[in-house]
Amino acid sequence: MLLVSFPSLENSQMGKMLAVIEQWDESSDQHTDNTKKYFMLFLIKCGLETAVFYSCSPKKYTYFLSICSLSILVADFLLTFLMGSTWFLGTEKSLMATCSILANASTIYGALPLPMMLLGLVDYCLEDIFMSGCSLFWKTLRNVILTLVVWAVAAYYSFYSEYVGPVELDDVGEIKVFVCEVTQSSLITAFVLGLSTASILTLVPFWSRISHWVREADRLIEAREQRKNTGSDLFFTSTWNPNPETKIGLEEQPEENSLKRPPLWFGMTLGFLLFWMPYLVMSMTCMICGLGVPAYFSVNLLWLECSNSLLVGLVFWAKSGKNGPYSSLPENVCLWQVYWHLSRDIRLSLLPVALFNPSLKRKNSSLHV
């Protein structure tokens, strides 16, 4: 049976765990090698990562976090290959022992979240300032180099970290158990805990109106899909006017309806939570139940895409006062433009032709909300 446990309170607080590698039952002379089970877990992770990569990750490699998503997927396949070769060939003939693979992988993966999040945030904030004139090739090359540097630093840190190899546990009766010390990602633990706590505190003041706003967001999404099916996406690209004194073809919205619209910051929060709440609930459940997850499992594309959505939402919100719904940020599963419109006090029922007909624009320019 595959077991992962905390050796002591001190190591638990430091994020260290024990992964069971081998077991011998002296009474029945039965030997259990858990390498196969680890290989199956990594294989399942690769399958899930592939599904997440093709469904959530934008394939625009001009953005740093998109390259990071691809690099994690490649690293997962490499890790699965190493574990599989160890299982098929045995420890003596394989490149690395099971304990060495797990210990180094947990250290490397645990060192990735902080630099990836920081560099991803800098990339989104400065994209319009320093990189707007660069070609797609140079942007992609820059992101590839930065990603390789992040992995190289993590590998360097793992190489110089303490590795003690398999250790036999004491006081387990007639069963000999060899374990390997692995680590959790303390940053991901803090990320999930902090984000979940902030989400609960944010939802409480608006709890009675959330269902109404969700239905309104669904209506906007349906209207967006209808416009896409008819070959027009003007519904989400032509309703913002940076000059509040000039309105272009907007119908009057009753004041009582505008008061029911959520603040912009809460609209962004709602758009984020409606998609990522299951991931946060699952992660919090594991923490509450004391189910420790090593870094080579917790650092995955679900976490990276959740972090990516958070960063894109923050930058979109910060720049929306100047740019409105227009943004050079990558497409995201949270549909930030929908929730930007949800927070506006205007009725989004424009005829597309009226927005690109100059005569109609001049005619409607005198209308006010």
UniProtKB/TrEMBL annotation:
Domain of life: Eukaryota
Keyword list, A-Z: Membrane, Transmembrane, Transmembrane helix
InterPro entries named among the record's database cross-references: GPR160
Transmembrane residue ranges: 38-56, 63-89, 101-122, 143-160, 187-207, 264-293, 299-318
Claim: ATP-binding is one of the keywords in the record: no
Protein name: G protein-coupled receptor 160
Organism listed in the record: Xenoophorus captivus
